[in-house]
Structures are given as C-alpha cells and as structure tokens.
Amino acid sequence: MALRRLASNAAANVTNGAAAAVFQLGLTAIMARTGDPHDLVVWSLAASLASLAPLLGCNLCMAVARRLAVARGDGPDAGPVRAVMFAAQVLTHRLVGTAFGLALFLGVAVPLAYPHLCDHRPWTTGITVAGFFFGSSWIVRSQPLQGWLLAAHRNWPIAAAGLYARAAAIAAAWALLANRLPGWAIAVAAGTTLWIAVPSMARHVRPELESLPMPSGPSVEQRHLTKIAVGFAAWAASSTIIQGSTVPWVAWLEPSAATPFFLAFTLVTVIVGAVTAAANALVSPIAILLVQKDLTAARALARRSGLLSWLSANLALGIAYATLPMILRMWTGTHGAQAAETKPFFALLALQHGIRSSGIVPSIVLAAGAAPRTMLRAIVPEACLALLLAVPLGAAMGPHGFLLGLAVAATAGVLTAATMTSREVLAERSLHWGSTTATILILTLLTAFGWLAAVGLWRF
Q1: Please, are residues 316 and 32 in contact by the beta-carbon 8 Å criterion?
Q2: What is the average pLDDT value for the chain, to the nearest integer?
C-alpha cells in the first residue's frame, strides 16, 4: 500500500478516535453541569458499562475484512463477496438482539448492585445505564459495514459517520441541558442519536454491494466468520472487560473514589485510545505484507510503528499528568474532583496503559495474521493474573492495589502477545536482539521505571 494511503487511513482513524474522545469528555462535562452531583456519579457507571457494548460486536469487522480479502482473491466471481456480507448481517442481527437484552438486564441489575450510589432514585439509574448502553451498541450494528470499508482501505467514511453521529449527540445533550432536563434524559438522548452513524456508513456500502450477484453459500461463510470472530472476540474481550470493569469495581471497593477515578480513567483511555486508533491503520498493510510473505518488510514496519506508538502514548500521558489540575478545572468546572484526589489514580492508570502501549502494534500483527487459536492463547496470562492477582490485591489494599495488579497483568499480556507475534507470525527468534519480544521487554521496563521515577508511584 502506498505511504499516502496509509497516512490517510491513519489520519481517518485519529479523527474517529478524536471524535470519540471529544464525545466522552463533552458528555462528562455536561453531566458535571446539570446541578445534581448524582448525575455525574451515575454517568460514571453508565459510561464505563457502555464501553463494554462494542464487545458484543465480536470484532466482526476484522473477521469480515479478512474473509473479504480471501473472497476477492478467488477470481472475478463476486458471489463469495456478497455471501460474506450476507452472513455478517445475519450474525449482526443476533448480536444486536443480545445487546438489547443485556441493556435491559443492566438497567435492573446496576441499581440493585450499587444502592449507595443511586441516591434513592433507582429507576433513573436504570434508565441511564440501559439507554446509554444500547445507544453505544450502534457499533455492533455497523460491524459488517466497517469490515467492507476496511477491506477496501476506505477508513474516512467510518470516521465521518462517527464524527457526525457524536457531534449530533453532543448537540442534543447540550440542548437538553440548556432546557434543564435531568441527566437520565440527556444520556438516553445522546445514546439514541448515536445510531445515525449506521445509515451514514451504509450509504457508502449499499450501492456497490447490491450490484453484486446474490450469494450461493451464506451458511458456509457464516461458519467461517463465526470461527474467526470468536478468536477476535475472546482476544479483545479480555483487555476490554478488564478495563471496562475497573470503574464499577473501584466504585464497589471505595464508593467515594468513584468520581475521581472515573475522571482519571477517562483521560488516560482517551489518550491511549487516540494512539491505538492511529496504529489500527496498520492492519491492512501488515496483512498484505503477510499474504505476500514479505516478512522482512512486515518486521520493519511493525518495529518502527511500535516504537512510535509507545513514545507517543507515554509522552502524551506525561504532559497530561503535569497539567492535570488545569485540565480538570477546564473540563469539569466546580463539580469535578480535586486534582489531589485524581492524580494518584491517573499515575497508576498511566503506568498500566503506558505498558500496554508497547504492545499495540504486536496486537495488530496478531489480528492481521494469526490464527484464531493463537489469539485465544494470547489472552490467558493477562486474564489469569487479573483474576488471581489484581482482584485479591484490590480486596486487601483497595483501589491502588487493584491497579498495581492490573499493571503486572498488562505486562504479562503484552509480553505474551509479543512472543506469539515474533514466533508464529513474523517467524523471528524471540530472544534475538531486535526481535519483537526483546523490544517490548525493553519498552516495558523503561515505562515502569520512567513512571516510578517521574511520579513516585511507591507513595500510592
């Protein structure tokens, strides 16, 4: 792929990530200004749980993109291409139904699990959680469309659709705030408005898709997609569930820390998410290099882009940490947590996500070229350590111990992904100087020692 196309797709991904960041920051600022502190507390739970909604999409867009690459390589017959999309639509309808059911379940379960945060208004808490969770499930519905556009190396329609939808959602939320409507109405309106991204994306896909022959074997493609999607889903689910459950878990461990932790968590995930979004533009070029068996070029691209991603993420996190009081003052106004309460959480989260940033590109290489079974094996060490180390530390030491345990689990996760990438995709000697594993190990150590020296994590 030409460098210009790669840069354009990276810019599109950054735009999409920036739109998501502005949306999340903007809605949090709006909730902080409703005049009711209860709204911000409930919003912190609703937004965190809604971050899990994309998991229901099972990363189907990546599975679709991979299958489309195979189908288009079969020759001039376009039948298999439409079969892939037909099968993806069938799977997506089932996943959207699951998302709706889960939204209803969360709307009932969250007020029961957090009665101390509901301020005797469980129904508004349930509506906020359920409404915004299902609103965030638009990403599930758009998975086949995104897969089609990714396979065609057209990232800008995806970014534009997300940008329009999020801008409209912020405008709707601001209008409701100006009319002094309650926080639950703002959350439901914003979530509902997000769904306009689906038809916006579909208009770029349907004309070309409908011109293709009708599929002859969608059930075969459905089995292929399901197999690939299970690998993608399980691989992505581990880190997303760990991250998405941290705010509810911290709120349960220490209710008074829910708001400051949510603010720190939002800032850190926005920063690292922007870097990850830019790096995701590498999926197609790396996949092409792997198909062409050009492992030398794939290694070089992965190494250079990995260093750039790690450096960008940690530099941005350091700047945000240094200017945190100003950021909080401008962002949440008088209703936000004080910087003194938020800074320790930000430092611990920056340690964890700074380590994760070193594994962004190896994870992309796995997504582009690894077998589903390999991706399943890659999640085991981190998931086990999160459960067996971070959770007990949280129970014994509170939120700070929980976050330190997650940092250790993240280290195990990125080293495992790097080792599998090195051995099973890039065909390297894992412990060779300059290999993916050796590079990630060095970056992980630099991240840990750098944050310890810069912010004194031992004090927390």
Answers
A1: no
A2: 78
* H or E stretch at 454: helix 436-455
pTM: 0.67
Query: Nearest to residue 306, comparing CAs of 447, 178, 192?
Result: 447
Q: What span, in angstroms and rounded, lies between the C-alpha atoms of 271 and 294?
A: 32
pLDDT at 453 over 80: no
Q: Of 397, 401, 410, whose CA–CA distance to 448 is shortest?
A: 410
DSSP assignment of 76-116: S--HHHHHHHHHHHHHHHHHHHHHHHHHHHHHHHHHHH-GG
129, 107 in Cβ contact below 8 A? yes
CA pair distance 391, 368, nearest whole angstrom: 32
pLDDT digits (tens, 9 = 90+) for 173-196: 999 988 888 888 999 999 999 999
pLDDT tens figures, 259-273? 788 888 888 888 887
Integer Cα distance of 220 and 87 in angstroms: 8
DSSP codes of every residue in 298-335: HHHHHHHHHHHHHHHHHHHHHHHHHTHHHHHHHHHGGG
